[in-house]
Write a structure and sequence with these properties.
The chain has 181 residues and is of the alpha/beta class. Helices cover 27% and strands 27% of the residues. It has helices at 3-16, 19-37, 56-64, 132-138, and strands at 42-44, 68-75, 78-83, 90-92, 98-100, 109-114, 118-120, 125-126, 142-148, 154-155, 169-171, 176-178. The protein is built from four helices and twelve strands. The protein is globular, with a radius of gyration of 15 Å. β4 and β5 form a beta hairpin.
Length: 181
């Protein structure tokens, strides 16, 4: 399926989710993510936006475990990372998305929870079309890329381009998919 078609279809499907279902599914995804990855020390999460999988539970749980939790800051054509220091450390950033007020230095992030609009069974992802996460994942500073999605966002196959970086793992409310298994 073409990326643009997958994007529009997935956005439609996600908008059709009952809000109670989306909230319960987000909590299930958070539980699966935490059970699978909380032994790691550094994380990149995202503040959810436009009906994305909710991430507040994951962010707060990892922060409570004294893990290093980074959130993206959109600057120009790329992403900078800022250290999460609680809700009061966030400002309204690009596209109205909450982000840290300051950027932070980092060498390597163990696990990046990657948002996406659509995914396929090979764990290719389609975002909003700006390429922010493909550039970040291609930089080699992320050990493990984990997509977070509702099951309705998954397609059999999406046309990937050479610059598209697939996820290593995809966590949904129903399953955990692994690219190399």
């Amino acid at each position: 399926m073409e990326k643009a078609k997958a994007r529009s279809e997935a956005i439609f499907r996600r908008q059709q989710l009952d809000p109670e279902y989306a909230e319960a599914a987000s909590l299930k995804i958070a539980e699966r993510f935490l059970a699978e990855f909380s032994e790691f020390e550094s994380f990149l999460l995202y503040a959810d936006f436009k009906n994305e999988v909710g991430t507040a539970k994951i962010i707060n749980a990892l922060n409570g475990m004294n893990k290093a939790v980074y959130l993206p800051r959109i600057r120009g054509g790329g992403i900078e990372l800022g250290l999460y220091k609680g809700e009061n450390s966030l400002i309204c950033g690009a596209y109205g998305i909450s982000e840290p007020a300051e950027c932070a230095d980092y060498d390597l992030i163990d696990v990046a929870a990657v948002p996406g609009v659509a995914f396929d069974r090979r764990l290719n992802r389609v975002g909003w079309g700006k390429g922010y996460y493909d550039r970040l994942l291609g930089a080699g500073t992320i050990r493990l890329a984990v997509g977070l999605a509702f099951e309705c966002q998954i397609f059999d196959a999406i046309d990937a381009e050479p610059h598209d970086i697939p996820c290593d793992v995809l966590v949904t409310e129903k399953n955990i998919y692994r690219r190399n298994s």
